[in-house]
Amino acid sequence: MLNYYISELKNWWNTTIPAIINEKNFLLIVGGLFLLGVVTKWAVVRNYGRLIRKAENINTTRNATIRQIKTKYDSMKQVNGKVENPMLFVKRNLNKCKVMHISVNKINNIINWCSIFIMGVAAILSFQLYKVSPTKGDWINYLVLGCFLSVSLELINRMMQSEEKRTELSYVLVDVLVNGVHKRSTRERESIIELVPEPEKREQVTYSDNITEQAQTEANQQRSEQEQEEEVLNQVIGEWLQ
Fold it and tell me: Is the pLDDT of residue 184 over 60?
């Protein structure tokens, strides 16, 4: 029985696979897999970037994922008084994040499967050409092209840093949920001020000191003028009374 199924599988392989994977369809299949991997990875990175912007305005956003995370966090905080591990809470909820009803984690892994499939298609076609004509070097060309596209797809996968975006989103959500939007914006302004170079800081301090000195001088002048006017009035009133 086992030999029968093995023979049937071999027959199906020898009749179906060459009709699908051949020299005419090679570039179409490999190019489609390459494009699918790049597009899905770009969609994941773009989705995380969009969620970061939505998380920074968590009180006014209409994004379903961010609002759901905020609602769950507020509910747990209201029941338990506090959330013991906000980072773990945020990461668990981000694992459930979906794009077009498909998990973001699964979409993020499509590029890895595309790289494997490209290598598989190249290996199958190279093996078929080698069986037909072992002396020709066409099978080597297809194998090298498949390896090149697979490695290129892997490099693109590493260049599009989706994990860094996911980590940034996690920290932004935790910061906003725990400390609020106002404190986050205040800290961002303070950090920007700290990044200002020292010469610019000195110029700002000197400018503010000059403004303070000018204000004090004007105030002293106004006081002296008022005192002089009071003295003149007192003299006039004294002479009139005499």
Answer: no
At position 120, the amino acid (one-letter code) is G
* Three-state DSSP state, 51: helix
Burial (CB count <10 Å: 0-12, 13-18, 19+), residue 109? middle
Q: Are 129 and 48 in contact (CB under 8 A)?
A: no
Give every CB contact of residue 63 below 8 A, 6+ residues apart in sequence.
50, 51, 54
Kindly write down the DSSP assignment for every residue of 115-173, as one continuous string. HHHHHHHHHHHHHHHHHH-TTSSHHHHHHHHHHHHHHHHHHHHHHS-HHHHHHHHHHHH
Q: Which residues of 134-173 are buried (b: 16+ CB within 10 A; e: fewer)?
A: eeeeebeebbebbeebbeebeebbeebebeebbebbbebb
Taking a C-beta distance cutoff of 8 angstroms, is the pair 56, 176 a contact? Answer: yes
pTM (2 d.p.): 0.67
Pick from 152, 120, 125: nearest CA to 138: 125
Average pLDDT score over the chain: 77
> Residue 91 and residue 105: Cα distance in Å, rounded?
12
CA distance 162 to 169: 10
Q: 67-95, pLDDT tens digit by residue?
A: 888 888 888 888 887 888 888 888 888 88
Sequence letter at residue 36: L
Q: Are 178 and 171 in contact (CB under 8 A)?
A: no
Cα distance between residue 146 and residue 140, in whole Å: 10
> Each residue of 103-158: pLDDT tens digit?
888 899 999 999 999 999 999 888 888 887 777 777 888 889 999 999 999 999 98
